[in-house]
């Protein structure tokens, strides 16, 4: 049965086996972070190697992992080595490896290292940049998943990709590069300078153009001005989950550049992950995921409890470099659909209404620019005995336009003491002292608005601000 047509029951069976192998054979024994964490929680690998067991593990994100800085992310990399590999590798690969150890020692080392040695790194993160490691076998997974990505996007090996993306090592760039390789499509990655992209388009008639979501409209204008030949483009990939305004800007840019009839499809990889999700060519809603390679949950961003909408949390199945269990991506989705896609019929889970990174904001405070992890701020407020209700408001002050972080609370204790305690705890949790703690009498007096979760509200700038 093809990877994208399995029944719920078949998916569950594959997932159970993959989860067990990932947790018991790979992550628990060989990830320093998870080994320590499981010991601290008093759990054995077997306890958490099922879907129900996994859900008893606290979800963790970049701030939880990198408490002393980005180098801490190394603790997520599986460190197996040869003896660990022999202990935990499944029969056929082990037999093949051991036979080679006798007769072809170099080839044996190659097999072990393909599974265990990080060879390639990309940089990821919202509030801080940390390295994500891949082994040779991980890169194989990324490339093979790229072939599936091409299927979802309705592309074939006859398609030619030109990607107008910055050449910084990110999972999105790596995913498209290896994806094109896996699918057998020619692909050019000239960087994101309009002149260089136009030059690449003179070399090959691109049928697929990949653009960064945040600047697609602008870039199309620049390409048009550089005289780029976009006449063969039938597919435009918006890399990063576009919101409605960004999608509209891209469509308007295509119209100005006289590109007609092209399918505009979102592709996206959350920070920390390595597999690109995509919208299907048939126009079904949501990003199509890979049920045998990842387990996706939505959690309430404030309480980290399961929710119908909320933060996208993922567990990787089968990746052995940096290995993520219940990873808080910082992305938010409005739903996780498990029924078959109404357009393409694929039975893979689909994430709808994905917004990238709204839980970590770059704030231009009066004292300078700071990244603030709103999950940490919410965690400092959730479930307190001295606070009955609360709202966090982040964004520009109506007074002077500088960003601020306001905490509104309904206190149950002595108000002045509560204000001091809240400010202190928010600073400890998020590294940032709130601009102000505002005390109000009842929940009805709390501010209203929109944001990434029920009690975390964002004020937007009147002008479109730089990506934050
Ligand atoms: Zn679909």
What report would you give on this structure?
35% of the residues lie in helices and 22% in strands. It has helices at 8-30, 32-41, 51-54, 62-65, 81-88, 91-103, 105-116, 136-153, 171-183, 194-203, 216-225, 244-256, 374-381, 415-430; strands at residues 60-61, 118-124, 130-135, 161-163, 187-188, 208-212, 235-239, 263-268, 277-278, 287-288, 294-299, 310-316, 327-333, 335-337, 350-352, 360-365, 368-373, 387-396, 403-411, 436-440, 456-458. The strands form six sheets. It has a six-stranded mixed sheet, sandwiched between helices. α8 (136-153) crosses α9. β8 and β9 (277-278) form a beta hairpin. Bound molecules: zinc ion. Zinc ion is lined by residues 280, 282, 284, 288, 341, 343-344, 346. Zinc ion (ZN) binds next to loops.
Average per-residue pLDDT, rounded, comes to 91
Describe the main β-sheet briefly: 6 strands, mixed
Low-confidence spans: pLDDT under 50, at least 5 residues? 464-468
Number of strands: 21
Under the CATH scheme, which class of the largest domain?
Alpha Beta
Secondary structure blueprint with pairings:
Blueprint: H1 8-30, H2 32-41, H3 51-54, E1 60-61, H4 62-65, H5 81-88, H6 91-103, H7 105-116, E2 118-124, E3 130-135, H8 136-153, E4 161-163, H9 171-183, E5 187-188, H10 194-203, E6 208-212, H11 216-225, E7 235-239, H12 244-256, E8 263-268, E9 277-278, E10 287-288, E11 294-299, E12 310-316, E13 327-333, E14 335-337, E15 350-352, E16 360-365, E17 368-373, H13 374-381, E18 387-396, E19 403-411, H14 415-430, E20 436-440, E21 456-458
Parallel strand pairs: 1-13, 4-5, 4-6, 6-7, 7-8, 18-21, 19-20
Antiparallel strand pairs: 2-3, 8-9, 10-15, 11-12, 12-13, 14-15, 16-17, 18-19
Helix pairs in contact: 1-2, 5-7, 6-7, 8-9, 11-12, 13-14
The structure holds zinc ion (ZN).
Residues 280, 282, 284, 288, 341, 343-344, 346 line the site of zinc ion.
């Amino acid at each position: 049965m093809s990877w994208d047509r399995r029944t719920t029951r078949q998916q569950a069976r594959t997932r159970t086996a993959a989860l067990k192998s990932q947790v018991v054979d790979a992550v628990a024994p060989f990830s320093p972070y998870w080994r320590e964490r499981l010991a601290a929680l008093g759990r054995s690998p077997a306890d958490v190697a099922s879907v129900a067991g996994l859900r008893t593990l606290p979800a963790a994100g970049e701030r939880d992992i990198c408490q002393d800085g980005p180098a801490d992310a190394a603790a997520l990399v599986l460190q197996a080595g040869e003896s660990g590999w022999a202990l935990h590798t499944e029969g056929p690969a082990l037999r093949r490896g051991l036979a080679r150890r006798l007769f072809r020692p170099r080839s044996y080392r190659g097999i072990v290292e393909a599974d265990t040695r990080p060879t390639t790194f990309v940089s990821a993160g919202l509030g801080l940049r940390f390295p994500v490691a891949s082994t040779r076998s991980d890169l194989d997974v990324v490339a093979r998943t790229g072939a599936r990505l091409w299927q979802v996007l309705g592309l074939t090996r006859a398609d030619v990709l030109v990607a107008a993306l910055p050449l910084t090592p990110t999972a999105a760039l790596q995913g498209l590069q290896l994806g094109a390789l896996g699918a057998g499509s020619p692909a050019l990655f000239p960087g994101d300078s309009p002149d260089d992209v136009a030059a690449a388009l003179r070399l090959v008639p691109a049928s697929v153009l990949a653009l960064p979501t945040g600047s697609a409209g602008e870039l199309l204008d620049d390409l048009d001005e550089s005289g780029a030949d976009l006449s063969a483009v039938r597919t435009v990939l918006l890399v990063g989950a576009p919101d409605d305004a960004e999608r509209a800007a891209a469509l308007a840019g295509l119209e100005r550049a006289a590109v007609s009839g092209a399918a505009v499809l979102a592709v996206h990889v959350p920070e920390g992950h390595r597999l690109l999700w995509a919208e299907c060519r048939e126009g079904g809603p949501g990003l199509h995921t890979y049920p045998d390679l990842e387990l996706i949950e939505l959690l309430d961003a404030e309480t980290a409890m399961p929710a119908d909408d909320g933060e996208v949390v993922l567990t990787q199945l089968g990746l052995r470099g940096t290995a993520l269990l219940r990873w808080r991506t910082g992305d938010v989705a409005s739903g996780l659909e498990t029924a078959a896609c109404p357009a393409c019929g694929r039975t893979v889970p689909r994430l709808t209404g994905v917004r990238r990174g709204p839980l970590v904001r770059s704030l231009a405070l009066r004292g300078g620019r700071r990244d603030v992890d709103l999950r940490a701020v919410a965690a400092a407020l959730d479930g307190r005995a001295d606070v009955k209700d609360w709202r966090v408001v982040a964004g520009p002050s109506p007074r002077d336009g500088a960003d601020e972080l306001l905490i509104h609370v309904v206190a149950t204790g002595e108000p002045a003491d509560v204000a001091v305690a809240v400010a202190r705890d928010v600073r400890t949790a998020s590294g940032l002292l709130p601009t102000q703690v505002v005390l109000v009498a009842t929940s009805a007096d709390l501010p209203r608005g929109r944001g990434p979760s029920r009690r975390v509200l964002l004020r937007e700038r009147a002008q479109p601000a730089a990506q934050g």
